[in-house]
C-alpha cells in the first residue's frame, strides 16, 4: 500500500495553524477578537448603565488583564449574580480570587462551589494558577473535599 501523499501537507497545515494561533495568543488577538469596544474604559461606561452578565464578565476579564484581580473578582461575582449557571464565570471568579491573594475569600467561594458544583471545584484545584495557595493548610483539605463530593 502506498504512503498517503496528503500526510506531509496535512502536517504542514497543522504546524502553520499552530504557529498562527501561538502568534495571535502572544499578541492578545484572541481576546480582542471577541468584540470591539471591550477595553476597560468602554466597559466602565457600559457598567454604569444596566449591564448584563456578559458585560460584567468582560469587565472582569479587562480588570484581570490590567492586573487588578480583586476588582475582577467583584465584577465576576456581579456576573454570577445575574447568570448563576455560567461555568466560565465561576472559573474566572475562582482564579481572580486566587490571584488577588485573598485566601479567605477564595476558600469561602470554593467551599460554596464544592456544594453546588463539586466536579468544577475539583477541576479548579488542578489549575497551575492556584499553586501559590498550595502552602495554605486549607488547600489540601478543600481539594480532598471537592474530589470526594465529585465522586459521590
What labels would you give this structure?
152 residues, 9 helices, mainly alpha
Describe this protein's structure.
The chain is 72% helix and 0% strand. The protein is an all-alpha fold and 152 residues long. Mean pLDDT is 81; it is low at 11-15 and 18-37.
In short:
72% of the residues lie in helices and 0% in strands. It contains nine helices and no strands.
N-C termini distance: 51 Å
Q: How many DSSP-defined strands?
A: 0
> How would you sum up the major sheet?
none
- Write the element-wise H/E pattern from the N-terminal end onward: HHHHHHHHH
Strand content: under 5%
Any low-confidence stretches, pLDDT <50, length ≥5? Answer: 11-15, 18-37
Envelope shape: globular
Integer-rounded radius of gyration: 19 Å
Q: What is the mean predicted local confidence, pLDDT?
A: 81
Structural class: mainly alpha
**If helices are DSSP runs of H or I spanning 4 or more residues, what is the number of helices?**
9
Percent range for helical residues?
A: over 70%
Amino acid at each position: 500500500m502506498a504512503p498517503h501523499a496528503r500526510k506531509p501537507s496535512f502536517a504542514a497545515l497543522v504546524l502553520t495553524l499552530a504557529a498562527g494561533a501561538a502568534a495571535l495568543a502572544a499578541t492578545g488577538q484572541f481576546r480582542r477578537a471577541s468584540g470591539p469596544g471591550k477595553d476597560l474604559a468602554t466597559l466602565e461606561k457600559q457598567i454604569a448603565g444596566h449591564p448584563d452578565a456578559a458585560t460584567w464578565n468582560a469587565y472582569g476579564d479587562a480588570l484581570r488583564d490590567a492586573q487588578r484581580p480583586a476588582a475582577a473578582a467583584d465584577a465576576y461575582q456581579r456576573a454570577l449574580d445575574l447568570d448563576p449557571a455560567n461555568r466560565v464565570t465561576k472559573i474566572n471568579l475562582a482564579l481572580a480570587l486566587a490571584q488577588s491573594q485573598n485566601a479567605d475569600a477564595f476558600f469561602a467561594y470554593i467551599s460554596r462551589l464544592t456544594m453546588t458544583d463539586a466536579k468544577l471545584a475539583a477541576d479548579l484545584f488542578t489549575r497551575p494558577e492556584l499553586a501559590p495557595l498550595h502552602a495554605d493548610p486549607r488547600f489540601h483539605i478543600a481539594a480532598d473535599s471537592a474530589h470526594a463530593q465529585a465522586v459521590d
